[in-house]
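Troubleshooting log. The previous structure file for this entry was overwritten by mistake, so regenerating from the original sequence record. Sequence copied from the archived sheet and checked twice against the printout by T.R.
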Amino acid sequence: MQFKNIPIRKVLIISIISISALFLSIGFVTNYYLNKSFGYFRLLSDVEKIISNELSMRNLEKTFILSETINPAFFETGKSVRKEQFDTLAFTVAEELKRLKNQKGPELEGLSPILDSSLISFEKYRQTFAKTCDMFHQKGFKDFGLEGDLRRLIHKVESEFSNRNDYKLTVLMLTLRRHEKDFLLRKDISYKDRFALTNQALIKILQADNRNQALIEYLQQYNILFNRLIEIELAIGMNTNEGLIGELNRHSQIFEGRLSYIQKIYQEKARESINRAVVMLFFLIGVISIAAIFLIFRVSRHIVGSIRQLQGHILKLGAGQLIETIPISGNNEITRMEGAINILSENLKRTRDFANEVGNGNFESEINVFDNQGDLGSALIEMRNKLFQVSREREAQKIIDQRRIWETEGLALFNQLVRDKKGLKLNELSFEVLRNLVKYTQSNQGGIFIINDSQNEPELEQVAVYAYDRRKIAAKKVKMLEGLVGTCFMENETTYMTDIPHNYIEITSGLGKATPKAILLVPVKTAEKSYGVLEIASFNEYQKYEISLIERVCEMFASVIQNVIINEQTLLLLETTKEQTHELTSQEEELRQNMEELQAIQDTMMVRERELQSMLEDKNHEIVQLRKQYQEQKLNMEKRLSWYVDFNERVDSTFLHACFNLDGSLKECNERYRKMLVPDNEPGHLFFSRSLSHQLSENKQEWNRIVNGEAYQGTIMRVDSRNRHVQIFASISPNFDKHGNVADIIFLGHCTGYLDDSNKKGQGIWLRDLVDINDMNFETMSLS
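Regenerated output below.
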């Protein structure tokens, strides 16, 4: 093209229009790639929402198994808030998966099979959870479901046995109940055979009398229900790898793995799209530079004279180098060209700087290309804003996920803590919960107050105090509506304060004293009742998610307190049964006295018989019959008394019997125990005094469980008064007072063998083997 007849101004206008068109093409191409990238980010956001909802469902699943399976309201109505929340989230996740599956586009190529399999895995997970809920509802709890049927059926048997006063039947019946409770507590399938053997032995004894047919049917039905209960437990799963619980874990792991795979693919495609956009941007800038060089070169051949000085600058631009600002003087076409070159160079510099900032991930950098106007300037600004928005959304979602993970891990930590510390007393368990809560929330100090309603005026007692990694003395008591603690308990609502009253509390350390910045008081409550208040203070303000975790931990702790109260009530019922037995014995004594008085009356009647014989012949016959009945009753009473005396003598001569205080000190014992384990009336004899050295720690741990209300039956090792290693089959049970508290510990044992002196490390020869307590023949001690 020849420029001889074209003005320079017009040539430059044509060149600028051409370059502007190329810049506009950059905007369109860049916008296309950015929209494609944003599509990947939207899909990635949808997948992350699905993952978040799935984590919430897993949390609801674990919470349901831990709390709802012991909640009577669930078994009574068949409804659960957590199950409804689970179903709502499951519906949301299923809809999101279907929406992803139904979307069309090149970004979804190859993902349809994995989305189909993910939807199938999720449906299996949801169906398995529903089935698990149904199985738990069938199993029941306490008075509901199979457990309720078992309880009602065995109560009929217990009522009949209590009327008969048959010791042997009562022992077998209690053993039957013990096997049932041990299976429910320990989840050990071996109790099924023990239960069946004990039940068969009990039925065999009852078959000797035709009047026991109803009891036999009760026991057979009891055995059927117990086997059904075992089948349901096996179906649910005895641990996390078996049954429906194992299937839940497997389906959820498969679903989570596939979601992670989809998320990874979207992330890779999003990064590839961003990289392509950046590469395309630089490519178009290069094309524009080349085009500008070509036009300027053609124009430069036409403009020979005055524009020769611009040749060097134009050549640098043609080589891709950004030049310094050209000094301009005058006002003509050349100067306007120089001005245009300066503007172009400056905008290219800014474009270069912006591209570098975006490449480095800095989406907040300022840019002024063509005054942020025009296609290129607006497109770059829009690209920066959209990238910045995506970055902020991901950062916000990351913070939300971190808080959710923190809260979930905290709940898991305290769930595990409650299970591990189940055998501790309430004060010790309160301290462990408080200590871990203060550390986990990075607080400075805290305290737990538990309601004591055993007095006329209930009050809150401080059972645990923790501050600066140390345990403090807990001796504070607060009345109802007294201070913030009493008010929080009565209102049954969480109290959060950042404006701390003067001299309300000070946190003391080695560096001095200071007033905390935030105080949180949370009621320790269940859905039915409040049991106390947790007070915690910190130099930092608590966030909403931290308060939520503390409230849920308090609810969990309240459930533990509620279980302790239920256990105490059960022990109180047992104590009431003992008192009723004592009253029955007193009534038998009154009957014996009445019979003696009747004998005295009979003697008087015999004296008067001589005078009134003709008038009392009919009455005389009745007196004779009454005398025979009395003799029969007297004979039965004497036989029964003799049996009890003989039984006590046999126990005293055969078994080791002792009573210990809660600290392990000996309270009283029979002569057999004293000769074997208390040499020369050893002063300060403890339950652990004759333990083997390598078993001392284990024995003390077992003793702590017994003191907390759990009975023990099994073999123990001791060193007798002759320094021999003796094996004892022992039954160690807590004895409860009328308030349901452990008063002392009853020890009943039977020596089953000794080790010789040649090897006391457990490798020696047993010198003798004695009968096991379970093999004793009760028939030899029967009343017959």
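Residues 1-5, 757-784 have pLDDT under 50 and may be disordered. Archived copy saved in two places this time.
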